[in-house]
Amino acid sequence: MSQAPTTAQHAAPLPFFKVMITLMEPYTWFAPTWAFVVGCVASHNIFFDPLTDLWQSIVSVGKIAIGTLMAGPLLVGFSQVWNDWCDREVDAINQPERLIPSGKATPGQVFAILAILGALAMAIAVFLGWGVALVAAIGVVIALAYSAEPIRLKKNGWLGNLAIGLTYETCAWIAGHLTFDPELRSAHASQSVVLAVIYGLGVVGTMIINDFKSVAGDRAMGIRSIPAMFGESNAARIAVLIINAAQLAAVVLQGLWGRWIPALICLLLMAAQWRVQAQLVREPTQPMAVRYNIIGIPPYTWAMLVAALGLR
Fold first, then answer.
1. Residue 7, pLDDT above cutoff 90
2. Do 64 and 159 share a domain, yes or no?
3. Is residue 2 pLDDT above 50, yes or no?
4. Total of domains in the chain
5. DSSP reduced 3-state for 51
6. Structural domain of residue 284, as residue ranges?
7. Is residue 235 situated within a structural domain?
8. DSSP letters along 96-162, please?
9. What is d(CA 39, CA 286) in angstroms, rounded to the nearest whole number?
């Protein structure tokens, strides 16, 4: 008689680095790396003049490079691995093929990955400055609270999405600014921080749209995401309202600060999102949410850069 196939729960562990890269979910790295670069730009203190001082130019580029490594692959990778570990029991029911519940990733591998990512991220943060280290530590604490019981911020759509917005965008932006303006001494430092908070709050709306993909599972598991609590139609309206309120606040503030050209460009980029937003409100479905992410998110991210460039 032939032997029954091995069940997913008894699958052989995969090689360490394959487990590491898979659990780190590289597709999630873009937002914080972009926000970190935007924060660097917002400082307006990056030195880049190879003809005058090649070494200082290399140092500036190097800081940006390792800062994006810290913000994206390391810190976000850490949060993704931690989230998968905290979700292992739920995943064993809903997605038993995933690495941790299937046994393809062992507890030893998971905690070794967490230790490596956390240590490297904090080492880079300290190298970039104690202000950056403080912001990174705050991000780590929020990431732990986002996934772990008894706090588990992700169980509440408002708190969970706020945590993501403030870490992936606000903290990353501020860390980038601090890298080149360690004591926030520049004349526009406070304005940079305000914009970082505003655009981070706007991400709450984009995360609501992202929650469309799991609304059925969220309802079944008692996770109070915004679509699960209010329905997809209302969630789409709430998301669009939050996204546009944040962008409008940024535009108005830039106007009040006398930065009319970046304010106008940001307004045009905001307008570029209206058509797909209207489509999402009319058709609040997962395919439409994916379409929004492809079409609506880029103008939002470009507006962040425009706002940062305008801080002079």
1. no
2. yes
3. no
4. 2
5. coil
6. 187-312
7. yes
8. TTSHHHHTSS-HHHHHHHHHHHHHHHHHHHHHH-HHHHHHHHHHHHHHHHHHSTTT-GGGBHHHHHH
9. 32
Q: What is the pLDDT of residues 89-103, one digit of tens each?
A: 878 877 788 899 999
pTM over 0.85: yes
Is residue 5 situated within a structural domain?
Answer: no
| Average pLDDT rounded to a whole number, residues 283-294 | 92
DSSP code per residue over 210-262: HGGGGHHHHHHHT-B-HHHHH-HHHHHHHHHHHHHHHHHHHHHHHHHTT-HHH
- Both 216 and 289 in one domain: the answer is yes
CA 182 to chain centre: 22
pLDDT one-digit tens code per residue, 164-200:
999 999 999 999 999 999 999 888 999 999 999 999 9
Q: Cβ(179)–Cβ(38) under 8 Å?
A: no
pLDDT at 220: 74
- 41 and 178 inside one domain: yes
202 and 180 share one domain: no
Give dist(CA 33, CA 175) in Å, integer.
Answer: 11
What are the backbone angles phi and psi of residue 224, rounded to the nearest 5°? -90, 60
